[in-house]
Amino acid sequence: MIGIIAKRYAKALVELSEEKKIVDKVRADLNSFMGAIESQPRVQKLFVSPAFAPDDKKAVIQELSTRLKLQKETQRFIEYLAESGRIRYVREVHQAFEELLAERQNRASVKLTTAVPVAPADLAGIKKKLEKITGRDVEIDAQVDPAVIGGATARIGSVIYDGTIKNQLDKMRERFMK
């Protein structure tokens, strides 16, 4: 249910930002706003608490907007979330906005997990292969997890490409257990 709501709001913001030709600015604004509230647990509590009126939440949004120098369209959108009682879903709206925008711009976000850090040259090669597989421009979020032992896992949306040694060992264990 929350996902449906978030997608509706995100779609409206994408369409507004495309219409006004400020997509990159709105995207940067949302990232700044989310960074600001993620670092402030008290602000997060204020947004989810029914004890605070929408006007109180809007006052905080206006203060943050001034500090962060947000576009008036972005500020107004976030204020509307507060007015409509949906500000508690701002994280989900932001995520849906990023996903919808990536889809429209033919971009894919990839979460790459390896046992050790990947050299920039190797990362460029992986990026090129993933772009060929997906037919999209790829943005890689590389993470290190020693538990994979070796190889890599690439997650693109709900699709997972698992080439890790851990996965191979798990498959071998299953075959031996049968």
Short summary:
The protein has 8 helices and 4 strands.
Task: List the SSEs and their pairings.
Elements: H1 2-19, H2 23-38, H3 41-48, H4 54-68, H5 72-83, H6 90-104, E1 107-114, H7 120-134, E2 137-144, E3 152-156, E4 159-162, H8 165-177
Parallel strand pairs: 1-2
Antiparallel strand pairs: 1-3, 3-4
CATH class of the largest domain: Mainly Alpha
Fold-level CATH name of the largest domain: Peroxidase, domain 1
Total number of β-strand segments? 4
**How many angstroms does the end-to-end distance come to?**
41 Å
Question: Overall 3D geometry?
Answer: elongated
Beta-strand residue percentage: 5-15%
- Strand order across the largest sheet: 2-1-3-4
Structural class given helices, strands, pairing?
alpha+beta
The succession of helices and strands, N to C, reads HHHHHHEHEEEH
Our Rg estimate from Cα atoms comes to: 20 Å
